[in-house]
Structures are given as structure tokens and as C-alpha cells.
């Protein structure tokens, strides 16, 4: 498949449309579109323009989307359940890849100066828990619970995007584009689960920027556990666990009661029998599927992408210019760097 073919296919999948639907919108035959996507035939300039318009992107975006380190259509790091439908997570993966390319397109024109950076480690040489501790030290984070993990990640230049996935079986995805990490999270899930997902994806970004291992998911989970619930601080608090104690710890640490149980078990603070009994207690109250207190936790709200749009608007750029720089065909398609509309003040 050619780079242009990659870009067309990924953009189409991100929109959730078929080849037939895109072909009709662009005024080409389905057979021709199939050959464009496969890279066996190159569309002429007029066809590229029509395809770009139908896909909601600019011609330069569509032509240049493949010329990037990490490629256009890469596998995303993804926190999902085994029962997640392939069609769903593949569409989400395509959307993440489109967002990656829009970020890359914009960063060619805009310089992002982050206070910190997302460090990367060799997953073979670095234990996930040690990596989490090093990130906390490099970012000079306070000892104890992580307040607003999204803010910490964005201060390190991580573009965090939130939207409703339309399913609860996929929590989040992440991948690098050039030197910029991009994370897409499911805003419909409870805050405690969302926070663990953010820690999980941060673990992927730190540990799996280039290396693929058989224990990637386990490594990211271990990273998230240490990052959000550092052993040195939380271990004494996990002794003598009860449902009441789990309530208090959830409020303090912002993680689910189930994550706290797993943390206690992994640290050998509780036995397998105690772990089983706690899960039975949660099940008896119907809390395995929906825990209490999640609505009381402070929400995780990404702001960096919108702030970039606001900064561009403050410099005099119009919504049309901002959209074009990011590779969107018009402002209505710009879903990530759009500055909020400013209200006119009547005097």
C-alpha cells in the first residue's frame, strides 16, 4: 500500500464509511478507489482534491500524511476488553492515527514548548515500576496521590483528546507522532477508570515507543499502578482492607476499589483468599460493574489542544486559517484545535 493509499484508507475508516460511500462522495468508482487504497494506481490531482474534500481534510494533509516517522497507519497502544468488537477498535485506531497526523501537520507551523517531556525507556532493561518512579522524579511530582494526571501529561507536551467512543469496551489509545505523544481517551467511562487508563497509556508511551514486547499490556498496567499508587506510600494503607477502608482509599487516591484490591494483592499485602472475599463483597453489592463514589472524583479534563487553538486565535488567525494549518478542510471539521467562539460584548 502506498503512503497516499494509507492516508485514504485510514481517513475513511476513521469516519466509519465504506469504500462505496467514499467513492460516491468523491465521484469515483469503487473499483478505482480500491486501487488507490491498495497503491496500485495513483489518483490525479483533481481526484485527490475530491477525495480530500469528502474526507474532511486538505489536499496537503492527504498527500503528506504518510511522510512521517512512525507512518500513517500504525498499530495503537490500546486499553480494551477482549470482547471489544474488531470493527469498533479498528475505527478508533484509525481516528487516533488521523489525530496524530493533524497534530504533526500543525506542529510543522507551531512550536510547542513543554515544561517537561515524556521520557522513554528500554522495556527490556527497565522495570515498569522503576520507570514510573523515574517519571515522577523527573516531573518533580509530590509524594502521594496524583492530582489531575491529565494536567501532568499535558505539561509534558502530551496531546490528550477526549471523546465518547460509543462503547465501554475500549478505554483509551496512544501512540507517538514524531516527537509528540498523542492519547485518545473515552470520556464516557467513570473517572477512576479513566485515570487508570491515562496511567496505562502513559506507560505505553514511556516503555513502548519503539520496542514491542510480549508483556506490553502487563508492563503498562504495572507502570500505571506504581505511577498512581506508589508502593512506598500506599503499602501501609492497604493493610486490613475492608469495604469501608476501600471507600476512603478511593476518595484519597482517585482509583477504583478493584484497582486498590489488585494493588494490595500484587504487593503481597493481602492473600489470594482475602482478595477473593473482597471481590465477593463487591459483587454482593453490585459494585463489580459500577462502583460508588466515582462521580465524586474530580474530572480529568484535557485543555492543551484547545489552548493551542486559543493561542493561534489570539495571534490573529481566523478559524479557517487554524483549520487549514491543522489539515482540516474547514473549521467545522476541526475538532481538536478549535478555539471557542468569542462572544461579542455589546456596550
From TrEMBL:
<feature type="domain" description="HTH cro/C1-type">
    <location>
        <begin position="8"/>
        <end position="62"/>
    </location>
</feature>
<dbReference type="InterPro" id="IPR001387">
    <property type="entry name" value="Cro/C1-type_HTH"/>
</dbReference>
<dbReference type="InterPro" id="IPR010982">
    <property type="entry name" value="Lambda_DNA-bd_dom_sf"/>
</dbReference>
<dbReference type="Pfam" id="PF01381">
    <property type="entry name" value="HTH_3"/>
</dbReference>
<comment type="similarity">
    <text>Belongs to the short-chain fatty acyl-CoA assimilation regulator (ScfR) family.</text>
</comment>
<protein>
    <submittedName>
        <fullName>XRE family transcriptional regulator</fullName>
    </submittedName>
</protein>
<dbReference type="InterPro" id="IPR010359">
    <property type="entry name" value="IrrE_HExxH"/>
</dbReference>
<dbReference type="Pfam" id="PF06114">
    <property type="entry name" value="Peptidase_M78"/>
</dbReference>
<dbReference type="InterPro" id="IPR052345">
    <property type="entry name" value="Rad_response_metalloprotease"/>
</dbReference>
